[in-house]
What does this fold into?
Amino acid sequence: MNTSKLKLTLLASLICSLIHVNPTLQARQLDPSCYKNIPFVNSVREQTVANLAKALQFYVFKDVAKEGAQGVDLKKELEDIAMAEFLNDFQFQQRVQKIFTPLNDGHVWYQPKCYRSMNFIQAFPLTSYVDSAGDQRVYILDQPVFRQGLYNKVREVTGVNVQNFLGMEVTEIDGVPVLEALQRFADEELGKTKDPQQRFEMLLANHALTSYGQWRSFFGYWASPGIVPDKSNVTYTLQSPRHGSLKVTIPWIAIPQISLKSFWSTFGYKRLYCDPDPTSPYGMEFLNPSTLGLLPEPGPGQSDTESLSTTYINTNPLKFYQLDGNTGVLVLPTFSLGDQFTYDSFDSAMDQGLEKFRRLGIRKLILDFTNNPGGSICLGYKLLNHLFPQIPRQQLYYHSDLVRSPLSMELAKRNSLWQCSNYYNPDENSLHKGLSCMFPGTTYIRGGEQANFTQKLQYNCDFQVNRRINRKPWFQTKDVAIVTNGRCASTCSSVSNFLQRVMKVRTFVTSPFPKGTNPPISTAPGGMVFSYDNLLWQITEAGLSSREDAPKNFPQKADFYFTVMENYGWNTSLPDEYAQRPATDRIVLDESNFFSPVEVWTEISQKLNYSK
Ligand SMILES: *[C@@H]1O[C@H](CO)[C@@H](O)[C@H](O)[C@H]1NC(C)=O
Ligand SMILES: *[C@@H]1O[C@H](CO)[C@@H](O)[C@H](O)[C@H]1NC(C)=O
Ligand SMILES: *[C@@H]1O[C@H](CO)[C@@H](O)[C@H](O)[C@H]1NC(C)=O
It folds into this structure.
């Protein structure tokens, strides 16, 4: 061991001693300074930047992302990073992470695993709705049985008793008027979605069904933003009914995700959590489009459960409720399949639920997709097929395309996402063969750049959607509505956009904003997200990993996700990700309907024109 390494170890144990003092602590005041002990290494930078650049050849929006005043030029950003000075590895990795935030796309993110070993949380989850005068306000979520351990930790660190402030109105954050402060935080730190109102709303706590089938409060990204904050605390100006205006400072609390002992030595920590693991084989398999959900709630983010009125058919996570004599509600919080939630269980739940609705004489249907992060696109098509069995396959499957590059053309010869035989040719209504989706391809000029893509393709979900549904169409499209809080992503977005665009179904978005253009009902309609690991796996399986243009393992552990397939629906020349439309209707949240999905559904039911 050389002396500089020795110095580093000593330094690390000193700086991290705060955390080391008491390894039994479950939480600790912010101390990300340990992270800054890991030195910047130029070869790590070079390899990271080179690999990202190679991976981005598959990223479908790198051209269109450059358009407009807020355009993002990823190539330029990577070039800047290649030239910049960094004090430590943390600073370098943060900079890489941040180039993807302004894309405002929930499908695209880079996260160094090295700096995710602590989860930083705020003890005040915030909510927002309009007051009796119709003005938008922000409040601290008042949930009595919520995170006692966290409250104790805040009291231990600062002496503040969090419970004294629950339910109060927040008027300023760090001296900035609260609406402005939250919007700025959402725009600069969160990204994730193109609509500014949706970004704002993602910070907030909300009320929804979990994928385990329970109604809960989700605390939102303000309380658990999944970032390393650069300040140790947040000062809130509050409006108390009894004491008027007051200020309270709440620290960020770090919840270690790993054993506290691991923080003791920089070398040990780096070896375990930052350095790549050359021995780990890829435990991967071929992924169907949109097997992955996104926009998960980071960190410990849910309250206790709460019961709603009895359900008719209750197959987790799918639920059918009867709202009134002629209105039924179908709640679906995810399209991600699992052991309990399979194509078959979905089919039988849909059959039973819709049959029950029919027997009850229910003619109006509300689809509640609140917080649905997406999942399998084939399951999405299945849902549409159950509701409207008359839609022909050619119309049901989205038109998509993939990047055509020398490497993707090689991948197309093997079992991979780029293999043409996975797709229908929409012009000929038959499956592609060989390399027929690549020749001729399509060339777009977007963002001032020429880019090559495949022909328009339709991913073949026949195997999953092959079941003949004999049931007659029961619901008329004018009696169907969708509701979400804007947090309906990926497959959920494709499904709701299809219903809005093709079936002309009314779409209701719940929003704390009383005015302005309606936000879209959903986000990240882009297409299919792929992980970097999965991309490397496909390249390796195809025997192409030694090619010059093939990305390799990152020099440090990192997660990287990005869009590899783009969908078209609204506009055949612009992908949906850049051409979404506002929801047709808005439900403005107030003190009462905020906590009550039943009230939201009732409002929608009244607005749907019921015809006998
Ligand atoms: C808040 O953080 C700043 C530095 O980030 C520190 O100087 C200050 O003492 C903190 N205030 C409280 C009340 O913890
Ligand atoms: C697109 O493809 C054409 C013909 O195959 C090729 O000449 C051109 O260089 C490609 N453009 C890009 C940006 O890769
Ligand atoms: C589709 O997008 C293009 C490019 O932005 C735009 O010029 C055109 O007006 C759009 N078409 C429709 C029907 O919205």
The pocket of 2-acetamido-2-deoxy-beta-D-glucopyranose (ligand 1) is lined by residues 158, 231-233, 249, 251 (CB under 6 Å). Residues 1-27, 288-301 have pLDDT under 50 and may be disordered.
